From TrEMBL:
Coiled coil: none annotated. Gene3D superfamilies: Glutaredoxin (3.40.30.10). Pfam families: AhpC-TSA (PF00578). It comes from Paenibacillus lycopersici. Keywords: Disulfide bond. This is TlpA family protein disulfide reductase. InterPro entries: AhpC/TSA (IPR000866), Thioredoxin-like_sf (IPR036249), Thioredoxin_domain (IPR013766), Thioredoxin_ResA/DsbE_sf (IPR050553). Residues 38-177 form the Thioredoxin domain. GO terms for molecular function: antioxidant activity; oxidoreductase activity.
Length: 188
């Protein structure tokens, strides 16, 4: 009986030590994984994806203008809700803003994605992430997710989910103005 009590006490002591040593590790792992997201203030990952005509298009890195990178799927209802606003933003900002719509082709059907583009009458650049490489680099685990990336390739905003067109306009104007100021300061 005494032996059982001593054995139980040792097991409880070892369990307590194990819990104490690992206390907070889960939070550290979660914090580390969220730190690895392409997030505001950090460089956007660079890669190349094919457009709808299979021409390669570069993503990330230095670009000529502010870029809105939007990850979507044809089966995603929020993506369907957001598409008309993205198309309107493309028309409104014209050559001041580049919009890259990245279809999650690795978890979507390409034919349905192309039909989605036709039905929504999207005229901005659509890219096909057939292997899921962009989703992995940009840590995309839901749709839609959008990033505003400045001309220097720095992520300025990361938006998960759908936001109103007016909110997009506010964010876009903020970063367009920042780029104009940066160019003016560089010229002086």
């Amino acid at each position: 009986m005494k032996r059982s009590i001593v054995l139980l006490a040792i097991v409880l002591l070892l369990a307590g030590v194990a819990v104490y040593q690992n206390n907070g590790k889960h939070d550290e792992v979660l914090a580390a994984s969220s730190d690895m997201l392409p997030k505001p203030g950090f460089t956007a990952p660079t890669l190349s994806l094919p457009d709808l005509k299979d021409r390669p298009v570069a993503i990330g890195g230095k670009q000529e203008k502010l870029t809105l990178v939007n990850f979507w799927a044809s089966w995603c209802y929020p993506c369907e809700m957001e598409a008309p606003d993205l198309q309107a933003l493309s028309k409104e900002y014209g050559d001041k803003l580049q919009i890259l719509g990245i279809n999650a082709t690795s978890v979507d059907k390409e034919r349905q994605a192309r039909e989605f583009v036709d039905q929504q009458k999207l005229t901005f650049t659509i890219l096909m992430d057939r292997e899921g490489s962009a989703q992995k680099l940009y840590k995309i685990n839901s749709f839609p997710i959008s990033l505003l990336v400045d001309g220097n390739g720095i992520v300025r905003e990361r938006v998960e989910g759908v936001i109103k067109k007016e909110q997009w306009q506010s964010l876009i104007d903020k970063w367009l103005n920042a780029e104009v100021e940066e160019k003016a300061n560089a010229a002086t």
